[in-house]
Amino acid sequence: MITGIISDFDENIISLKAIPMMIQGNIVSELQLKLRNREGLVKLTSLGEGINRYIAILCAIWASKDGYLFIDEIENGIHYTNYKKLWQIIFEASKMANCQIFATSHSRECIEAFSEANTDNEGVYLEFYRNQKTGLITVHERDNEQLNYALTHAGSIRGE
Questions:
Q1: How far apart are CA 126 and CA 98, in angstroms?
Q2: 122 and 91 in contact (C-beta within 8 Å)?
Q3: What's the rounded Cα separation, in Å, for the pair 146 and 121?
Q4: Using CA atoms, how far apart are residues 84 and 90, in angstroms rounded to an integer?
Q5: Which of 97, 114, 14 lies closest to 62, judged by CA?
Q6: Whole-model pTM?
Q7: Three-state SS at 85
Q8: pLDDT tens-digit profile of 2-61?
């Protein structure tokens, strides 16, 4: 189940395996990948920050099964061309794990990708900003139609 989701992010990934290893008298698991273009297994740590971040997010979703997950600056380490794919997979994995995700981002590209991937209105966009008059934090919810309109018509997002 999780291998298919990992392959959705990078088609070169065939599978993910946890290999037990003995380190300083403790048994730990090292994550290794089987890739289409390589012989044998490859350590996850030898790959780029993006795939490591992505797999960390997936593992965190499954570790938070039937609960909640908070991810600060979800776009960190992920190339902007993969944001939409990341959101699509997060929507799918969170449904499978029955996990509610709360993610923050300051990236316009990441917010645009969220809007594009949120075709079924599965996600909710909340904007937090400090009211200059009262000094209080204000929350503004936008459905996908409102968010898409703001993104395509030079509207303010990110509390701008």
A1: 20
A2: yes
A3: 11
A4: 10
A5: 97
A6: 0.81
A7: helix
A8: 556 777 778 888 888 888 988 888 898 888 999 988 899 999 988 888 889 988 999 999
d(CA 6, CA 150): 32
Q: What CA–CA distance (Å, rounded) separates 115 from 55?
A: 22
Cβ neighbours of residue 153 closer than 8 Å, sequence gap 6 or more: none
CA 126 → CA 58, 68, 99, 139, 141, distances in Å?
22, 16, 18, 6, 5
* 78 secondary structure, DSSP code: S
Cα-based distances in Å from 153 to 52, 94, 150: 35, 30, 5
Q: pLDDT digits over 75-98, tens only?
A: 999 999 999 999 999 999 999 999
CB 114 within 8 A of CB 104: no
Sign of CA dihedral 159, 127, 115, 86: positive
